[in-house]
Amino acid sequence: MFDASSDLYDLIYSAFKDYPAEAAAVAGLLRTHHPGCHSLLDVGCGTGTHARLLAGEYGFAVDGLDRNADFVRIATAKHPGGRFYRADMGDFHLPQRYDAVISLFSSIGYVMTTDALARTLACFAEHLAEGGIVVVEPWFEPGALTDGYVMTHRAETEGLRVVRTSRTEIVGRTSRLHFTYEVETADDVKTLHEEHELGLFTEDEMRAGFHAAGLNVAYDPAGLTGRGLYVARRRED
Fold first, then answer.
1. What gap in Å lies between CA 133 and CA 32, rounded to an integer?
2. Does domain 6-141+201-234 bear CATH number 3.40.50.150?
3. Residues 101, 89: contact at Cβ < 8 Å?
4. pLDDT per residue as tens digits for the range 193-204
5. What pTM value is reported for the model?
6. Quick one: 144 exposed, middle or buried, by C-beta within 10 A (0-12, 13-18, 19+)?
7. What is the pLDDT of residues 27-68, one digit of tens each?
8. Options 2.120.10.30, 2.20.25.110, 3.40.47.10, 3.40.50.2300; which CATH number does 150-199 get?
């Protein structure tokens, strides 16, 4: 997962992803669903841009977690006020409890199976403080992606130019994203390759995963970026 391209991640995604607008929307949602919300755990936090904005612009106390060691390193430098952990989103056990556990940018798709989805959401629920909520931005449902679809993104900064081409492959209930990076500097041109696999879950399967984790859930089909958004809390709340 972005092991070859972690140091290029911010350059590529800042070219087309509106992090400030997403952070503003998440902050508003948290204030609406949990007015006293202060502490957040960002699971699948990537390089920590959402965490930095939610802390710096909206006053939340934000920690993060990601499997990628380079992402944890970058996020820690970007938001030194937070604690960032390297761990699997489906198997982590922190001493802290949070007013909200959030997982954005479809990171949940990497769990791949419905059993792993249920375990992951149970892990999220385990880390909730009393009255806390879980916010999850899903990956796409089966049938939403086109097999063979190709997309290209370009980004550059002083002395560095990157062209990333992605090709989507659909195999049953799995989407494979084949990324090729052409990286050009003043001294060198190199090509990097990555393959990402994300599970394709239906809304019913997502809801079942939340239910198995002991959570009541509401679903917004538009969400932050058109991929939908789930907001959940423990049933006893």
1. 11
2. yes
3. no
4. 999 999 999 999
5. 0.95
6. exposed
7. 999 999 999 999 999 999 999 999 999 999 999 999 999 999
8. 2.20.25.110
